[in-house]
Amino acid sequence: MSDEVLVLNHNYQPLNITSRRRAAVLLFLGKAHLVEGGESPSVVRLNHFVRRPMPILRPTRKAIFTRDGHRCVYCGAAHLPLTIDHVVPRVRGGRDEWDNLVCCCTYCNNKKGDRTPEEAGLLLLAPPRRPKCLPYISYHKFVTALRNPRWQDYLAPYAGSLA
């Protein structure tokens, strides 16, 4: 994370995480100014407001794994090979949505098969939910960026229950 720079909109809203080289170009061209960091920028702020439509937060494989903490939601295992499971199986009308997709180890996934967790005798450790975060930055990058102490002040207000 040391080669990454947080880019803020003119109103201090997080927009992107970019490379240090791209941030240096923004600074050199006068499109942004330094907020934090000395010779090597950590946070830059754009000099003008950028209007962006609100993107849709899609349930990707990486995002599901990040949301569930890379642990099986049925047994809590993190050391086993993991996959994506539909709580309500597709053959029964289950959809590819945040509240139906979970991270699952292959053992529990095979045990569950095309049944519901109740029918297979499995309990969800945590119910699947749609994450609440700033969607301008991908969910996986956002959760990873929250670990950077220099960015906490800028990202924490948008983190909700993630922080």
Secondary structure layout:
Elements (H helix, E strand, L loop, with lengths): L3 E5 L5 E6 H9 L3 E6 L3 E6 L14 H7 L14 E5 L14 E5 H7 L4 H4 L18 H7 L6 H8 L4
Parallel strand pairs: 1-4
Antiparallel strand pairs: 1-2, 3-4, 5-6
How is this structure best described in words?
By secondary structure, the protein is an alpha+beta fold. The protein has 2 domains: 4-54 and 138-159, no CATH class; 69-120, Orthogonal Bundle (DNA Binding (I), subunit A). It has 6 helices and 6 strands. It has helices at residues 20-28, 61-67, 106-112, 117-120, 139-145, 152-159; strands at 4-8, 14-19, 32-37, 41-46, 82-86, 101-105. Strand 3 (32-37) and strand 4 (41-46) form a beta hairpin. The longest helix is centred in the first third of the chain and has 9 residues, at 20-28.
